[in-house]
Amino acid sequence: MNGRYADVAVNAPVGPRRLFSYAIPDGIAVQPGQAVRVPFGPRTVQGIVFDLPDLPAVSDVRTVEAVIGSGPLLTPAQLQLARWVAEYYRASYFDAAALWAHPGFRQRARPVLTPAPQAESPDLPPDLTDKEAVVLRLVRERGRAGMSDVEESVGKRAATAVVRALLERELVERHWEWERPSAGPRVEQFVRLLISPEQARDAVPGLRARRATRRAALLEALASAPGPLAVTSMRRDVAVTAADLTTLAAEGLIALETRRVVRDPLAGRSFVTQSAPPLTPAQERAYREVEQALEAANATPPRDGHAPTAFLLHGVTGSGKTEVYLRALEKAVALGRKGIVLVPEIALTPQTVQRFAERFPGRVAVLHSALSPGEQYDEWWRIRDGAFDVVIGSRGAIFAPQPDVGLIVVDEEHEWTYKQHDATPHYHARDVAVEMARRTGAVLVLGSATPDVASYYRARRGEYRLLEMPERVIVDESAGQPAVRLESHLPQAEVVDLRDELRAGNRGMFSRALMEGVRAALAANEQVILFLNRRGASTFVQCRDCGFVLRCRRCDIALTYHSQGERMVCHQCNERRPVPQFCPQCKSRRIRYLGAGTQKVAEEAATAFPGARLLRWDRDVTAGRRTHEVILRRFLAHEADILVGTQMIAKGLHMPLVTLVGVVCADIGLYTSDYRAGERAFQVLSQVAGRAGRGPRGGRVVFQTYSPQNYAIQAAARQHYMQFYEQEIESRRALGYPPYSRLALLRYAHTNNEFARDEAARLAGDYRRERDARGIVLDVLGPAPGFPQRLRGRYRWHVVLRGADPATLLDAVAVPPGWDVDVDPAVLL
Ligand code: ADP
Ligand code: ZN
Ligand code: ZN
To answer: Going along 231-303, which residue ranges are E strands?
Structure first.
């Protein structure tokens, strides 16, 4: 039974986890998940119904104004998950629920003024101020005016007061108008024949004789077309005018009609159906387990709290994980279910989409932030209609309205782009997928060559079932028939000690080994990638003689160099130290900060290898929507010999002519004020090392470093995940970082640095007091500056909560306005 009241999440900045009660008027049917319009303060706002209680939470309730759309926007299962997202990530219920809404759903109403019905004289009241008179005249003359019109005529400052005065005296009325949605259906005009094609052709000579050539051409085109034609294309092709159309319509020869057109991101691309290759033994073992889980999930009706059937597929690069996903998807589809596949934004390339589209021709939907809003809108509705077996997309695709999901795949599950960093809720798409699978009984496959340390830890504890694929699949196409062989010893990267180079008198950026390798590759007409890890990079101080890095005494993370004031700063606890003049370990004076950019590398490469054709690929040069595809295509076409770039090039691209990958300084990214710096460096360097030896020409990878003994560099060079994991998990345990604790990062930013710092100190103080008063076991770290400390003109300060359950303290002390909470932050910088 539905109650007569609705608890509604409103589209207004009301803070986290708040619902508001409204009465449901008679004659309106409302279900949970329904989008509605409700009055809120003086305005009308969008809302989403969460509950239908019999009694309201407050006595004085207002009434739901209207429902939006036919039927609920969210299913009961989605609404449950939205509640979880809002509660877990401490976001507003509306912001959480709106993740499941179609593109362009969010809308705001703007005030519009109209003249009040004039009871007495049409003259202006004599006691109005000049500005009030101006605005009243404007509203009466135009019949309506928006706030921007008012601001234009009397200035921004006076506008609000003037409008309030006119409203109070009932000289104008205020209405709310909804702004245009940012995306919606596209409709186009089509022209259709009302006569037979033969009759149309017969009419052509007569029209030509009357020199009505455009009309004649239109009838000819329609006569030979299989159906109606778009007016836009007829304007273009036969220059038909609106008058021509009116005339022909009046003569009863044609009719105009409006049709919905679908914008299809894969339009114009055709895919050759590919059948599945036979699986390798390791793929077979992994697939069988997933298959059994899919069958079991289908046999028992899913219920809440269903035992998790989540897998962590740990397979080295090139072990054929994608093939396992494809097989599992085929199985899910055969069982009558559908799938969602998440891939990192950067990996959602035409090549990736093609691999899926070839196996499910016409049944793959793509959701990607680079699609136009219109394309996203159309794709969303077609998905909701059940048009696709597989939805593939970046992090937001986890909220796709894919019905009856039986399988969720998260490829490269360790990627930090799954975390929504900029907007709220700060959800992690992989963790939402885990929760979704747990609640719906869908089977989940998390795949990675370098799993998130926390994921691997969970798998070892039995929360995920671990599937290992340690061998690489090598496809040799040289012998006509592609031959498949397995490789269990992965090629290793050479680690070059830059301290030795210095001792040998080489002060340049490139070691002798790398120089010689590049020259050999160029001489053989092969290609080279020079790679620089800039992910989360900050500048740190390192001794070039012994490799020593200055660390925080309390947090054991690297200190960051600040040129302002020449200081070393811990971005977690704010410890500050002067920049050392000589190395505390070996007393060398060659201690300096590092942080070369790709531009510098490109410049030095141009000098070192004259005549080589260079191409640069990083975020600075790939701002455009498709630029990176262009750069990639040019490099693949061998229009350049050396590609200089950041981690964007480390992704699983197939570049057969590349025989040498040089990591210019493997230390960059390794030392930042972030407990995950080592993990991230390991992941990126492993990916780079995994690029070697994939083509028939083989290949070589060189890591240049000042810290050749560093565990992350060592393990990445050997492509040895376990070696890395054992060390990393031990240090996490010793220092109390996740997965042995959980973190919440609180962020504050202000144009005034002192103000921001004091505000952060105040909040940290409140947390400490409350923690001690309640006896909660939790670390309150900071306040500490963010990195970069100043972003878009605002100074950033952070407070970090670390412990078994930071939520207890977040519940106890309400997050003050202006603060941003990030639960399970991907980075602490
Ligand atoms: P991963 O996703 O683990 O990096 P891929 O799925 O991209 O690996 O596989 C690497 C290469 O091996 C691809 O070119 C793929 O087509 C090929 N491959 C994978 N499995 C097989 C198989 N069973 N038989 C033939 N080729 C395969
Ligand atoms: Zn030293
Ligand atoms: Zn510290």
So the answer is: 254-261
